[in-house]
Write a structure and sequence with these properties.
Number of strands: 9
Oligomer: single chain
Strand order of the largest sheet: 5-6-7-3-8-9
Number of helices: 11
CATH architecture of the domain at 12-77 and 157-227: 3-Layer(aba) Sandwich
Distance between the termini: 31 Å
Helix content: 40-55%
Radius of gyration: 21 Å
Order of helices and strands: EEEHEEHHHHEHEHEEHHHH
């Protein structure tokens, strides 16, 4: 177990003490101890299925631990950007951004409009021809994700939880997002496969282990890649002799995003299989079929993870 200890002068926001969480027949987090203090920027890395999203959902109080203790300060303003669509199918960008706010706030409050304008520009929303009147249903997945993030930041949370925030974002928007979070004054805990994003935004990196634990990585992403060096060498290649070109870096980043989407699909499929196995516990024939399908998915995911580590190590 590893604890992130805070100086006594810094406000502690969330503390996990020996927290465990499992689903059906598998424990994904086992006796995890972690402290989150004000103004910290924490990146959480690990292979798919090792409990990264579960950790965020526990911190956000979306799920409850099976064991251990999790405490939050009573007045904590918390917001979470989860994977998947958080906007719904209808309405406009403006309506999505101001959900729950009074009409006069949206229409006439100058300070509110200044904050909104800054956030909209900061996450790349100015590109829409109809502005805030653009229909949600006309947007791409990446555009919807930008709006969901802007909506969270508009509430001014003290603790921001980000689950793969760079999914489906183009390079220009990624840069704008990193710039915005650089100047954002709150606390961040983010799960991401994007090493550039983690290195730019986070001060501390933690890795979840295959056995459900957590480990502090003082060496950051480089240390994580070293720990998984065996997987990274699954596809041999010649040593790099110079800095990659901009085009090759963009190609590598696109490949990383493709692999991440494939990993996400496998993780979702495996969650469904675990649920089906739990529901079919008395049907031995069906249970055997599901187990075989799960083993196949796990093997495919291992290959994808090795490819991700290999591609990530191409970046400087």
């Amino acid at each position: 177990m590893t604890a992130l200890t805070a100086m006594s002068s810094v406000r502690s926001l969330v503390n996990l003490d020996g927290v465990s969480k499992g689903y059906a027949t598998r424990t994904v987090l086992r006796e995890v101890t972690l402290g989150i203090s004000a103004r910290e920027r924490i990146g959480v890395v690990g292979r798919n299925g090792e409990g990264k999203s579960t950790l965020l959902r526990l911190i956000a109080d979306v799920e409850t631990p099976d064991g251990g203790a999790l405490t939050r300060v009573g007045d904590l303003g918390l917001a979470m950007l989860a994977q998947g669509d958080q906007l719904g199918a209808h309405g406009t960008i403006g309506e999505a951004l101001v959900r729950g706010r009074a009409e006069h706030e949206w229409a006439g409050d100058r300070a509110f409009r200044e904050v909104l304008d800054g956030l909209v520009g900061g996450v790349g929303l100015r590109r829409f021809p109809d502005g805030l009147n653009t229909a949600i249903e006309a947007l791409s997945g990446g555009e919807r994700r930008r709006i969901a993030l802007a909506r969270l930041l508009l509430d001014g949370p003290e603790l921001l939880l980000l689950d793969e925030p760079t999914n489906d974002l183009d390079l220009d928007t990624l840069t704008a997002l990193e710039d915005l979070l650089d100047s954002w004054p709150g606390t961040i805990v983010t799960v991401s496969h994007d090493r550039y994003f983690v290195e730019r935004v986070c001060d501390d990196v933690f890795a979840l282990t295959p056995h459900g634990g957590i480990r502090h990585l003082p060496g950051g992403i480089d240390q994580y890649l070293e720990l998984h060096g065996a997987a990274a060498t699954a596809t041999p290649r010649a040593p790099r002799t110079g800095v990659s070109s901009g085009a090759s870096l963009r190609a590598a980043r696109k490949e990383i995003q493709r692999l991440e989407r494939a990993l996400d699909r496998h993780a979702e499929h495996e969650r469904t299989l675990h649920e089906q196995m739990s529901a079919s516990s008395t049907d031995h024939a069906r249970l055997s079929e599901l187990h075989a399908e799960l083993e196949k998915s796990l093997a495919e995911r291992e290959l994808l993870e090795a490819a991700w580590l290999d591609t990530a190590s191409l970046e400087p």
